[in-house]
Predict the structure.
Amino acid sequence: MNFPILSAIISIPAIGAIFILITQGSEKNIEKNSKYVAIFSSIVNFLLSLFLWFSFDKTISDFQFIENKIWINGFINFQLGIDGISILFIILTTFITPICIFSGISSIKHKIKEFLIAILVLETLMLGVFCSLDLVIFYLFFEGGLIPMFLIIGIWGGSRRVYSAFKFFLFTLLGSVLMLVAIISIYWITGSTDVIKLLNLTIPEKYQYLLWLAFFSSFAVKMPMWPVHTWLPDAHVEAPTTGSVILAAILLKMAGYGFIRFSLGLFPVASDYFTPFIFSLSVIAIIYTSLVALMQEDMKKLIAYSSVAHMGFVSIGIFSLTKQGMEGSIIQMLSHGLISAALFLCVGVLYDRMQSRAISSYSGLVNVMPKYSLVFMIFTLGALGLPGTSGFVGEFLILVGVFQKSIITAFFASFGVILGAAYMLWLYKRIIFGKILNSELKKLKDLNKTEFYILYLLAFLVLFFGFYPEPLLNTIDISIDNVIKNYQVDLNLFLSQRNN
Amino acid sequence: MNIALYILPELFLFFSISLLLMIGIFYKGKFKPIKFLTITSLFFTLALVANQPNEVIKIFSENYIIDNLSIVMKILTLLFCILVLFSSNEYIKINNIDKVEYFVITLSSVLGMLIMISSYDLILFYLGLELQSLCLYILASFKRNNERSTEAGLKYFILSALATGLLLYGCSLIYGFTGSTNFEIISNNLNDKNFGAIFGIVFIIIGLAFKISAAPFHMWTPDVYEGSPTSVTSFFAIVPKVAALTVFIRFMYVPFINVVEHWQTIVVFLSIASMILGAVAAIGQNNIKRLMAYSSIGHMGYALAGVATGTIEGIQSSIIYLIIYLVMNLGAFACIFMMRIENNYYENINDLSGLSKNQPLLSVSFLVIFFSLAGIPPLAGFFAKFYIFMSVIKVEMYALAIIGLLTTVISAFYYLRIIKIIYFDKAKKPFDQIYDWGLRASLIISTISILLYFIYPSILIDIIASIQIY
């Protein structure tokens, strides 16, 4: 029972990366062995995290599997632990990583060894983010992820990769350093950076606003929220397919997770105060980026902008602070993790064959790639939130939650659904239907085996959770109740103090 | 008898210098075992320092102090001097500067640093400082027939003489207004109303800022770093910083402790100016030694931020910063020593282009060291900055903390640029892949300790926790 399962989950990919780093031999052998090591360690990690999910007690709201070690004497303890919210993100991470590795192996041509190391190190850091229960440890993992991602975009990216990698790195770093100031301030205000302790005590109101803004600056860039979203389209377009998948599926979710865990948990008064601010930014993001997405000529850019819009839904859902809204946000994050990953993989499939991401270079693909067209349709419908896909569950719950809080916000946010249908269907129509205009397209081959299994597996999950989201809702239910309860208690305490 | 026991390390070093000097007279040209003898004598000095009693002792009518601070700093000086000699061994050999003088002068400057670190008196401090600086001028111009090297030496000498003049002027003002050169007596006689002495403090800070190469007194640094032989540059970037920071701390916290609010503003200014200059000016540099010069200016700015807090935590965080900085620079210069093709050393950062293809492991070291210099977690450089900002925010100097962190982002740009050149650009002619073991060892030590520091960060805290200022 005392087996440190969280440490194991965090460290297995890193150990795999070390193995790959020290393999010696002929180039061919190294390549082959590192592929095996990467696949093996990521799949073991996925199974381990599934085991974690089964042994996770869904009936208690406390943090579970807590590990606590002295790390910096007298300052900080290395504390890990999970609740119903983090477990799902852990599984999302361990599920997406092997997919990225499989897709990377078939599409990446040079420096495959370094690529696998970068992916595995990134997995370690991402899992660390979701497991850590200490602000400093959280920051460590949160920021550390920049290094492998920078390399993934920069080494294996497209033609403007250097610009995009720098933009990605500097934007995120700039947002995050303010969070570091806030974390240190919290240490000196409360005497601890232990999240469990901090959730139980309250930070004086006068500090909360600035601290909230400092955390917000970091999460807003990562999320990304309008107007600091501009790094995302660049990063997505230039990153290799696998990089885009990880970025969209997991890295963006860290911000949503951070909002729920830290912004709401630590600064309830400030969160309440800034809710209209978040709502306005998110509504602008939803409508503005949807309109921008309509006009894109690059498929990856279109999906990137749609990600910004979808994450806008997530942020209004979180700050609606209703049970439906927050559960919807988490489902939306998970489903976006699957759907956007799949959409980027779909674009990657075309890019590998034609070396072009322009929408105009494709037409009538249904004639040559029927399997591809079918699975692409499922993801298109998932992205626009058709009932029966996981996208619908998330968006619907969010809108239900937001209606209780602010009808105007819900009214405007609903336009996002319509616009989403517009740009996704239009994209689908232009690529898949019509006549084949370019003779090269006639030679296109349909999905190969790896692509087929990956994409249809994702499609199955999107449909499965669309019809039966119960396993997910069941897991997060009590944790969400707990977050909302804590928030209400703290907030009422402050309000009554202020009235006195 | 007792006194001799307490200054045994210095005495031992002094006698070994004299001995080596005499050997050097009899051997014209090269004397092979000199390297071995130099390093052995440094090792013995290190052992003697490490064996000094763990208590506060003041000798020579309380003008020379042996306490935890001085012992830790002396150990750092000696240890890093040894490591620098190991890593620059190959460079010295190939560039034909492994003469007896080189080692004797290096040792003498180390002796000067040891005296500086322990000095508790203005005159003794000045003697140590001058012994150290004179040796450094000669080292800077050691490649006599190279134009840039002689220029570097001369430039360093002239500017340094000016700074020393200001420092001496400050010392004489302090002496005049407090009536003593002993730190403790100065501290007792100094108060807010003693304007003459406060005037002197400004001059002393200027002199010290010059030695530590803090902006706006940094002008010599880029030229001297670029012009000197790389072995000397790596020595400059690492070893003298320890002594300079120690005397900075000692001056601020012993004789001037009663007028904290007067010097605090100046040190905050120095710190902010260095951080900004170090971040902005390095962006346009193409010579890696010049870039490291600006980087070291920036890093000294962070170390000074810890000093500026006026608390014991601040000093401790500065010292931790210094230690991590030393390790990172050791690694960075080891990388620079590896930029060699057939006995020619390269200094332009574009020569690194596409290194990752030819030498993957060296590139990983570059990656780790430069991300660490940029302060990205989970590498050691992040913890260095973390401790500094812990102490800065504790005393609620938010402006300093936020400016410091924003300059981290700016400076990340040029560190990233090097990573970009190594990893994203097309491969050029590969560097030689045969290095001597000293270079290899110092690179491995530095990379591994930076990379794995996060596993047990308490290690430095434990060392530093005992440091108090007397």
Notes: Chain B has one domain: 3-464.
